[in-house]
Design brief:
- By secondary structure, the protein is of the alpha+beta class.
- The protein has a domain at 50-191 and 247-406 and 482-536: paralog of FGE (formylglycine-generating enzyme) (Alpha-Beta Complex).
- Helix content is 21%, strand content 13%.
- The protein has helices at residues 2-20, 101-115, 120-124, 141-146, 163-184, 194-197, 202-212, 238-245, 249-254, 293-301, 392-395, 466-470; strands at residues 59-62, 65-69, 85-89, 92-95, 216-222, 230-236, 267-268, 274-275, 348-349, 352-353, 381-387, 409-410, 428-429, 455-456, 479-480, 484-488, 505-508, 516-517, 521-523.
- The chain has a 4-stranded mixed β-sheet with strand order 17-16-11-18.
- A hairpin with a 7-residue loop joins β5 (216-222) and β6 (230-236).
- The longest helix is centred in the N-terminal third of the chain and has 22 residues, at 163-184.
- The two termini are 43 Å apart.
Length: 536
Amino acid sequence: MKKVFKYLLIVTVAAVAVSCEQRELNTRVSNTTGWNYFDKKGTNFQAYEGVGNVNPIGMVPIQGGSFTVGEKDEFLTAPRNNETRTVTVSSFYMDKYEVTTLNWNEYLHWLEFVFGPVAPELVDQARPDRTVWREDLAYNDPYETNYFDHPAFSFYPIVGVSWTQAMRYCQWRTDRVNEMALISCGAMAMPEFDALAGEIPEEEREEWENAHGTELVPYDIPSPEDPEQMITVYRPGYEWIRDQFVFNTEKYLYDASYVPQYGRHPKQDSYGKDRKVTLADGIFVTGYRLPTEAEWEFAAYAPIAGPDGLTVEGKVYPWSGYHPRDMSKKNVGQLQANFVRGRGDMMGVSGALNDRYVITNPVDEYAPNDFGLYNMAGNVNEWVMDVFRETTFQEATEYNSYRGNIYSKPATDENGKMQLDSLGQIRIVWEAKDDKRAVKDGDQASRLPNSEYELPIDTAGFSNLKQYKDEPTNILAPRISKNTRVYKGGSWADRIYWLNPSTRRYMDQDASSSKIGFRCAMSTLGNQIPGTPVKK
């Protein structure tokens, strides 16, 4: 027993010694200058380590890798705009579900509460287009009236939203999540929503104005008791709400003049002075956005390596196999997505409905793919970030492929102060040379000299290209521009061909449809995130 105890003691001491071994690179002493970090006698430089990725709520971590992007099957009548190519995507996060009508109504409610009385046009810009349900020879009035408001559709995907609106939602979501992170860690006080909720009492008005350095403004609104009667309430003015009340991540981080009210336990520097949170504190998410086309396709196929380290290439749909019906013993014959089987067949016959939905379905219906993502085929198509071109994958880089870069910078006034847009976010500007949406553009139509025109995507069969320059509108072919965006995935109203994740279509970024929704993505930081376990 003594020998065993002695052996265990030696092993334990050795293990502790190994665990206590210091990494040569550290955040205590500079490995290049020898100066100490966090030294009160120094310059107050603070160094942090291991902050890593903030696990974003509602998202699935997806480990990146290489895969074959593009066409997975041959269709003689299909548009040849997705030639195959091997690319690599970095790890990223993606929403488990498509953004729902409930999610969008939360966004609208915030806009109405904050900007409704002072800038109603900002609220109107975010409203989905209800008329997308209209069809000249169909009775869809109940959807136009109820789809966006009735709780029966709370967990259905939002539709009628343009690419531009979806991107604004991503920015709003980023700001609300980062704002909550600051409040939770005590670095910022909860916004005074009660100041926007109604009239500030007369005896408190002067005190409020002195405390916040602004005058309250009278606004006429419908009376809660009698909507036909107008009453006057006092609220902060639009500019104060935009500049001081509305939190924006970039404004907080990069505008030195913007210092929101601190909470009880703000961050402190090495001298013990209060300071703003920085990126180095690691509490901010990197930012919600739409996925790139390459990310979306990778996430849909979920090409996870098996025990031999190899992935299965050539999948036609997000699920395993080549058939839209489930082939497992438990669910044999059941459809795995919501789509159109044939002319007029939206959901099967009465008493034996196959996909069970005539239009969209709840976002948590059907089985998820191997990454745990729901409805990556069917239900609704989904916007992605990319500008559409036929030859994107022939021209794009081999890693993190994306067409749509605009290298911008914050707009500043004559004093160098950052300017804000209508929503309280930092306004960005760019020069023509920094717009890369059409760089290395392989389309014949897009390479024509007069690039300000919206030009056709398919010029096959036309030899005299001069006619397009002289009269670019005299063409019946579909047109593309720098504002033409990709959408993918197939919808409740599409045939099965479009459920193949490699298929791609396009629409103007300010247009919308009852067949297009979206989900958000987010980039990771530092090390690649752990891989998804292989299913046994």
